[in-house]
Amino acid sequence: MKNLHNSQKGFVMLTAMVFLLVLTILALTAVRRATQGENIAKNMGEQNVAFQTAETALRYCQKDFELTLAGGSALPLGTVQTVHGIPINLYQGGFPDFLLPDLWRTRSNWITRGFKLPANTVQYVSEQPECIIEEWIKPNKDGYGLGSNAGSANLKSSYVITARAQGVNSNSVVWLQVIWYLGSGS
């Protein structure tokens, strides 16, 4: 009997250590999942703030632009057009492609051709949102070609308004864009 007892020495301790290791791994996994869930919720909140800030910038620029044109006012003439200090970038494209304006794609254009909302327009964000307005001349619903329908009468002006905003930190960035058609919008 004594021999059997001696061969089992340490078995209980080994079993307890294995169970302790399993419990530790389970506890660490539970903590990691809880922390991961909190991070996901935090990121979603920051993204939501960035989206709302971009929406604010988009509506800010669009409102001033619409109010200027709503009373029948024309845009100021010249190569540099502005509405309440917001630059209106003239369309550079044309036949045959009439591509969508893309000044907004280059970060340096935001500094020289964009508009940053005044300080404290939106609070608790890492940077005030900004917008850029670009004219877009495109064929109307009847099209544009080299035949009988060619000419400026078949071209419509519209405007692409792009807003860029950051949330609470600079890692959450949202871009929003709207195409605003003048007249019938076709």
From TrEMBL:
Domain called Type 4 fimbrial biogenesis protein PilX N-terminal: residue spans: 10-59
Record-given protein name: Type 4 fimbrial biogenesis protein PilX N-terminal domain-containing protein
Domain annotation PilX/PilW C-terminal: ranges: 110-177
UniProt xrefs under InterPro entries: PilX/PilW_C, PilX_N_dom
